[in-house]
Structure prediction request, 476 residues.
Amino acid sequence: MNLQERILQEYSRLKGMEPDFLIPLPPTASNRKYFRLSKGNDSMIACYNPDRAENEAFLYVQKKLAGAGVNVPEIYFSDLENHLYFQQDLGDVMLLDLADTYRGKGSREYLDWYKRVIGQMPAIQYKASLDFDFSMCFPRDAFDKQSVFWDLNYFKYYFLKLMYVPFHEQELENDFHRLADFLMDADTGYFLFRDFQSRNIMIRDNEVFFIDFQGGRRGALQYDLASLLFEAKARLTLDERRELLEHYLNVFSEYSFFDRVKFMKFFPAYCLIRMLQAFGAYGYRGYFEKKSLFLQSIPLALGNLNELLDTWDLGVEIPHLHSVLEKMCKDLKVTGLPESLDKLLISINSFSYKKGIPQDFTGHGGGFVFDCRALPNPGRLEEYKDKTGMDAAVIEFLEKEQDVKDFLRWTGELVSASVSNYLERGHEHLMISFGCTGGQHRSVYCAEQVYKLIREKYDVRIKIRHIEQETSSYGR
Prediction:
């Protein structure tokens, strides 16, 4: 019996009838599979998740949140042995959708909805944490120092390294430890939703509901508010964040345990760790899983990060990490994403095949990749080993070779034809990469020559990057 047959069988047992429809829902960032079952005006959501421990956590957290008066989906049926459960269908309207609709009408009414969400946070973070068995949480009982390092390494390996952001390994590690130690000085005795963002907040019957809380665990109050206010696609302004932050502080000030000053001491640093986790997710989901939706969030997230660094005191000395983050914000070339200008952007790269072909992070799927390894290699000669394809001696060496001339003539014709076509069709981005063994001589020279060709022939924006040399420059 396949999965859909099993779901239909369990629905029939539960309802005493077959559904009119069973519709697979779009895939999410997780391995969970969702299906909508409907009979007339009645519908529910079936979830299949092969990870039993995560399912157990979801069902336990659902019970605790519901017991604290939080609007969460009702559970109709669960079969942990077969990794299946049915839950209430909350529709398709997320807080993010609602905010975009109001914003499109020029209305700030979406802030009232955000305030309603914040009004539920004492029940989620405090009331639900009372008598909570955090050993039931998945994959860890607390957002502790180990969890912080998971997120920091996620950021380092799936964003910084993939985007070729230079950093000093040991200095960065030192700052990671300082940041983690500082975060753990906050009070971490509350329920942390973990992924508290507008995509996991549903609007139904004029009420807010919360979903995807299976990653919840013990942690600090600051983290969930940071997730809500600094979500990239929410597009909240600085003034809006401040207004919502003040509302949160006022709501929690009614509770004797809440220390407003101490909360603010740690809040900016929790905003930072949440952002770094998100950047790691954008790199992993966008690069490895080829989900362009995540890549589209990078420019928005960079804007949020720039705001955080410019307007908030992080409260902890992390000089090297701070400089790396500033470079990310100021040098948007590092993302490989086009700026929001009208002209076609052409990205030209030189690279080493030993390090891998550069990835296109614009969501357009990539472009030309030319292999220069069959060309005469000046790098084999001692007098050229310390030089690059931008040095006069290497240029002179390569310009004498007929194979190099032919290669550039052919590649130039191919590239020119595509640029002309892209301009006619109004495309936004074209990527062109030249690779050789070390990314130092032939690939650099060829990339520079094609850069000059395009610059002379077309009115476009050009970005050239020699990845192994870590130098960049802009054309028109």
In short: The chain has three domains: 3-88, 95-335, 345-474.
